[in-house]
Amino acid sequence: KYSNAEIKQIQGKAKSHDTSTAKTVKKAGGGQVYGVQIFATGKTVDVQSELKNISSLIDKYGLHIKKAGRLNKYQLGPIGLHGEATKMKEVLIGKGYKGSFLIPMDE
Q1: What pairs with residue 30 in β-bridges?
Q2: 8: how many CB neighbours lie within 10 A of its CB?
Q3: Torsion over CA: 65, 86, 98, 61 (sign)
Q4: Which residue(s) pair with 34 in the sheet?
Q5: 93, exposed or middle or buried, with CB in 10 Å at 0-12, 13-18, 19+?
Q6: Continuous segment of H or E residues that includes residue 57
Q7: What tens-digit pLDDT sequence spans the chain (107 residues)?
Q8: Cα–Cα nearest to 61, from 73, 75, 49
């Protein structure tokens, strides 16, 4: 279970709908920065219940919610290294987010 403070922190990150929750990442060798799209939906998601099992990843990398037409795309990142992003994708798949995939991400 998560404390009320942790739940509010997760909710605050998701409600921001911008990149302000992302950690600053230095591009490895000036290259691409990656993210992992967790899922996309046309509905508003209760982050407290839907993403509580990955709150530590959200704390580490940040959560972005990007609007694309009628969809909200829930994305983890930015992640500076391709290998690390690939590992995070596999972790997310293992936690039940089977449609997770790598995406290019701006810093």
Answers
A1: none
A2: 12
A3: negative
A4: 79, 104
A5: middle
A6: helix 55-61
A7: 444 555 455 545 444 434 334 444 545 456 789 999 999 999 988 887 889 999 999 999 999 999 999 999 999 999 999 999 999 999 999 999 999 999 999 76
A8: 75
Q: What is the b/e burial string over 14-28, where b = at least 16 CB atoms within 10 angstroms of the residue's CB? A: beeeebebbeebeee
Q: How far apart are CA 92 and CA 86, in angstroms?
A: 10
Q: Which residue type is seen at 65? A: I
Please give the single-letter amino acid code of residue 2.
Y
Cβ of 6: how many Cβ atoms within 10 Å?
A: 15
**Residue 9, CA distances (Å) to 13, 47, 58, 62, 79 in order:** 6, 10, 10, 11, 21
